[in-house]
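Glutamate-1-semialdehyde 2,1-aminomutase, pasting as requested.
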Amino acid sequence: MTDMPNSRDRDLRRRAEAVIPGGMYGHQSVGLLPEDYPQYFASGEGAHLTDVDGRRYLDLMCAYGPNLFGYANPQIDAAYVRQLEKGDALTGPGPAMVELAEAFVAMVTHADWAMFCKNGTDATSMAMVTARAHTKRKTLVLAKGAYHGAAPWCTPRPTGTTAEDKANQVHCVYNDIASLEAAVAKAGDDIAAIFAAPFRHDAFIDQAAPDPAYARRARELADQTGALLVVDDVRGGLRVARDCSWSKLGVQPDLSTWGKCIANGHPISALLGNDKCRAAAASIYVTGSFWYAGAAMAASLETLKLVRETDYLERIEALGDKLRDGLAERAQAAGFGFRQTGPVTMPLFLFDDDRDLRKGFCWSSAMLERGVYVHPWHNMFLCAAMTEADIDAALDAAEGAFKVLKREAPTLGPVEKLAFLAG
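Structure tokens follow.
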């Protein structure tokens, strides 16, 4: 695609190399995707994206999660624009901040208060300092490979950080109770918090639902040690439940972090907490020039209204079941071991015997060519703007992509840009 004559994507990449370090950075860089994936997009509408060269895709990435009710949702965007016209970033917040905090407290069982910020990393970092302020301790227990953001204390790429940035951390294996107990014991009297993802959604490996016994034990250990239990719902929030994700297991955290889709793509994230840690949250210093801007809060209020008043979650779960069943049938017919893990609303696709992702890259590129944007190693997202016709189109594309893979498989070479996986 980027080798097409007169490709605008190719031209933008060339220009970016001169003015942006590395040409592109962060999780939306296509540096670790197949070569034909576009880097730049012109627009989004509903469940579809259009790239700068005019190609339209059914988007199963949903902007890496923020798209819950459809790109350019008229109801949510109208609320954003109404507030924008009145004022956005002002010398102080508007009524929407209080109204949004009230809406979250009413919706999320464990929450007695809410604080707002801009990115998921802001929210998880606020949870960390709140836990340390509450306990007067330093050590965090985290699952190996879990992603909690891009600050120096949690970034998965250590370049430019120091060992001290990740000091006072002990790691366990997700869903392994004995490992969790050992990590808590190692933290000893210095444990401040146990961090947990709503399910295991590490990159490059199969996702896994949380074991209810593991979740209950995390709660018990937090209570026994005086630590705070933190559920990082930045990725899974509102796609697993209308409440905190672990509420489905009967486990309530002390703190939960939210972001991505809580304003359907408008920039806002949140830290929610219970009364136990209210005083600690009031004592920390966290702020940002744009954290109190009202337009995103108005969009979030409208998003939460749709969460409360529509069957959006049941619909995307039904679409996810349809997609999962249809892909399994087509993969089996083509003779491929094709693993689909995670919630049906946030699927991950991986092939058996594909450690270096050569099959995944080939299949994903074939899907892209057929107008469906999938990711070869990151979990994806379904949104409420998708329809049964969209899922049918995705399944038709998948059938064609499996045929391409069957034809090309004998000649596929290793994916050199992912050589680190072999190690």
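Note for the archive: The domain at 8-71+311-422 is CATH 3.90.1150.10 (Aspartate Aminotransferase, domain 1).
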